[in-house]
Amino acid sequence: MRLFIQSQIREYPLKLFNVLPLALAVLLTGCTTASDKTADKESSLNATLPKLTQQNVLPAVASNEQCNAQMDSDILFGVGFLLYENQELDAAKTCLVLAAPKHPRAFCYLSMIAGQDESKTDEQRNTESFNYMAYSALQNDWCAEYGLYQAYNYGHTSAKQDTALALRWLERSARHGYPEAQKELIEKYEEQGNLSATYAWTRIMAKADDTSAADALKARMSAAQIADGDQRYAQLTGQVTSKQAMYAEAREEDVGRYSAEIYQDYPDTFKGLSSAERYNYVKQSMFKAIDLPFVKGRGHVLSYIVVNRQAQLKKPGVDIAQDKKIVAVMEDDELSVAETIEQALSIVNKTYR
Known about the structure:
The protein is an all-alpha fold. It folds into 3 domains: about 30-170, Tetratricopeptide repeat domain (Serine Threonine Protein Phosphatase 5, Tetratricopeptide repeat, Alpha Horseshoe), CATH 1.25.40; about 180-240, no CATH class; about 265-350, no CATH class. It is built from 17 helices and no strands.
């Protein structure tokens, strides 16, 4: 299976962009609402899947060196994600199974891990992979919904090829905000010659101040198609998960990922913090770092979280963004993340006593 999880969500810019509000489109009293119709569609689509429970999908796992049931669930998810990226799949599976009850996105990674499990037969791998996806899709997870689109579109895992059903799952993933699904849906509608739907989804996916793609489409459309496209767009704005909500979701996952990296490589960072305090510190520091002029990527954010915490342990309330020597280290593009943290901590140890 293609690694659909490696998505545009993780590529969202660090700065928050202008987005459309997420609202319910309600028609006249006594009429069927757009949200009612969407709920009916989702219910009928859910009926195509096997009835699954968390208990019969998640296997029993034993703790490993990286993960145990006493760890915070967001750190479990973050460690599982890092292990998955490093292709340490057995260890990743344990962490993600432990995280899954509170982090449904873990089921998508578990689905991909199951698909690569060479200790099982093809049938066992396919069934397990599909069931992880199916259970997660029943919880309205855009990642699993996109996975089901791929499964039905290409006829892999336990799914028999069904392009019509695949398109329904693709649209559901798009409605739940996944940019890759929205992009692919636009391409499919355009291939079908459905310019009204293409136009509506193009407007949904565009940034608030960018109308170029929609304007290019309008030049090819009739007045009736434009009117239909505008109506579809108006309906979709009340049904599609907003970019702002997707950004917030991605940042919540980032808290776990940053916490996991720090937990593994710089455990003293969280010394003296409760689980809630650690979570709040990482989240607040992450957003603080995102807005700093010298922060250019994830490595800088991680460095800021670690170094600023160590500085605060020595001098409560200090902010290393005001320290010119540390900022100079952060701005040095020749340094790795580990080197940046090492040099910045050296400054902290000499300066804050």
